[in-house]
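Quick log. Single chain, no ligands specified.
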Amino acid sequence: MNSFVAAERALRNAAPHRLMEALREVLQGQYAAQSVELLMADYGLSFLQPVSAQPDTCEPVAMHGSTAGRAFGAQDPVMEETGDLTRAHLPVTVRGDRLGVLTITLPSETAAGALAELVDIAEVLGHEIIVAERDTDLYTRARRRDRLTLAAEMQWQLLPGRSCARPEYALGAQLEPAYGIFGDNFDWSAGPDRLMLYITNGMGQGIEASLLTNLGINALRNARRAGVPIEDQAVLADQAVYAQYRGASYLSVLLLDFELSTGRVKVVDAGSPQMLRLRGRTVERVDFEAQLPLGMFEETDYVAQEFSVAPGDRLVFVSDGVYSVAAPGGETYGEQALAKAIAATRLLPAADVPRAVLRELSGHRGGPAPEDDALVVCLDWFGRQQDS
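-> predicted structure:
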């Protein structure tokens, strides 16, 4: 049995909470590793948190300015040489969803020849973490630098991930305040021919906002999984929200259905989330026909519009907690400042853009405590390569 197969088998056979113990044993035996650590990205994407069965036994690592943080941001292995030892920092990523960094210290003579295998092992570890999280809180707890509010707990559990990538596109998203979000949300679902994306701007605060968003997102998922088109998804979700709240609460959602082979997109604009497009060096807002938020009135009909994306386009979606946030002097962030932030981040990968825009927003706001949720989702469109 070769070393990689031994590591893969150990991970697959380990109890959910013992992945690192099993992996550490194999890496010590097969690669002479002296230390093995797993660091998970926290909810705010500011720190890499150590995974341990005993909390608070290791110090978190700052995302910015650290070697492990550089590996996480670049999504490439970063090697540190210290005498006869090499410290390898390897991204732990699953289909574009960046979970953290696996750090292994091993003899330099072993590291050079084993790097490709170690990168593959880090990827297998990521897949096993996703499966293990169904049965243990160990990895979820490791992501927390602070305690989540109950509303935030509900919202994070509702999300599909924070980033994903396929040959046709790359997606990244982030919410603020990460540990105290209310009702803003995003959801996506990829199929062989389509990508469906929902951007939600929740109404209200606290548990009530979270409950409203949970109802709306699950109603949309229920309709989507029944195979109905997005305009009918909006109708069915609208009925579910109205039946529960009778118009007293409602949900603003932007629904998009991308055809992967052509770049044609069907859109239902049911509320306040906005979309801006970066094409070349030009940032412009793309407006759609405004329709009623979900659940505002009984038996609302929705109509889908169409537009197209071209390879190289970047689409950035924001909630009103981004474009309406006020500075201490009262001026709102606004479309011009948002366009400037999008242009300034054009060289970053999609997964890094939301956090960068939210940092810019925090500087405009002039204080660390937002009064409203802020959601940024970035989609880079590459298009599908046609067979010649």
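The chain is about 35% helix and 30% strand.
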